[in-house]
Design brief:
- It is a single chain.
- 33% of the residues lie in helices and 35% in strands.
- It contains 2 helices and 6 strands.
- A 6-stranded antiparallel β-sheet has the order 1-2-3-4-5-6, covered by helices on one side.
- The longest helix has 22 residues.
Length: 106
């Protein structure tokens, strides 16, 4: 993947996350500053999503830890175990907003 392709794909992912937060109806504040998108619950817990251009990865972190994702055939997959970005985001949202919380990327 070229750097331009990475930037386009990562921008689309960040926009999809922002759109999903807007649509999910959860108490999540969304703040974007450059390459970093921060989702914060009303309890102060955060999910930080970072575009890391030098490695061609998207990073997702909570207080529980961080994960790295690479785009493979149009899917963002965890570099360690191959799980999808969406499943990791869903788990992070449940951590921040409670076990019943749900979010879906389009």
């Amino acid at each position: 993947m070229t750097e331009t392709e990475f930037l386009e794909a990562s921008e689309a992912l960040m926009q999809a996350v922002e759109d999903a937060v807007d649509a999910c109806g959860l108490d999540l504040d969304c703040d974007r500053s450059g390459n970093v998108l921060t989702l914060e619950g009303d309890n102060g817990e955060q999910i930080v999503i970072n575009r890391h251009t030098p490695t061609g990865q998207m990073w997702l972190a909570t207080r529980k830890g961080g994960l790295h994702f690479e785009n493979k055939d149009g899917r963002w997959l965890n570099t360690r175990d191959g799980t999808t970005f969406e499943s990791a985001l869903s788990e992070a949202v449940r951590f921040v907003c409670g076990p019943q919380a749900s979010i879906t990327l389009k």
